Amino acid sequence: QKEVEQDPGPLSVPEGAIVSLNCTYSNSAFQYFMWYRQYSRKGPELLMYTYSSGNKEDGRFTAQVDKSSKYISLFIRDSQPSDSATYLCAMNAGGADGLTFGKGTHLIIQP
Amino acid sequence: DTAVSQTPKYLVTQMGNDKSIKCEQNLGHDTMYWYKQDSKKFLKIMFSYNNKELIINETVPNRFSPKSPDKAHLNLHINSLELGDSAVYFCASSQSSHFEQYFGPGTRLTVT
User: Under a CB-based contact definition with an 8 Å cutoff, are residues A8 and A103 in contact?
Assistant: First the structure.
């Protein structure tokens, strides 16, 4: 079993829809959780980060963490064609640990 | 005023050569990292370097070595390049008191 599982998609939704992206993990040591957006041939761009269970909101984005279920989600409201990209979940145990990434979900927002 | 920068952006070289990729961050962070993104787009940690401590992912061949001339720079040296080294290499940085990491634009390495 991989440490972080993420459905690679592609996930195609119409513009304006609410998008739900998810990851599950198996390592209980993971305490810090991040979502990155990566456009083709670009570096990962940090979207959201959190360390506690519950919800964190930033504009159209909401990150949700459930440590008891080892499950994290990213919700995108009012999705736009410019949101089309690969979304990567990432996590670590803290400190100078490298991040463990999911494989990324390829999201397509249809105009 | 790019936060994390890498040079070169593209690197094409032959098998057996030795090459270096440079990384600089102007965020004042104290920890830097190198990641490898393979052809299937999977990102994997190679090294993390915090002041004097180097943490190496045990799967990384010893042909790869990070070198840090100062806190703002972490360069990646690769000896005896192999075809399987072809990938995109990303540098990242963070502040040890915080956990979020910021990535550079990547260096696409092609070994022929």
Answer: yes
pLDDT tens series, chain A, 111 aa? 679 999 999 999 999 999 999 999 999 999 999 999 999 999 999 999 998 889 999 999 999 999 999 999 999 999 999 999 999 999 999 878 899 999 999 999 999
Q: Give yes or no for A49 touching B (CB within 8 A).
A: yes
A96 touches B: beta carbon within 8 Å: yes
Quote the strand ranges of A1-111, DSSP E. 4-5, 11-14, 19-25, 32-38, 45-50, 54-58, 61-66, 71-76, 85-92, 100-101, 105-110
A77: distance to nearest CA of chain B, Å?
23
Where do the H-state alpha helices sit in B1-112? Answer: none
Q: Which two tokens mark B47?
A: 């090294």
Burial class (CB in 10 A: 0-12, 13-18, 19+), A71: middle
Cis peptide before A81 (omega within 30 of 0): no
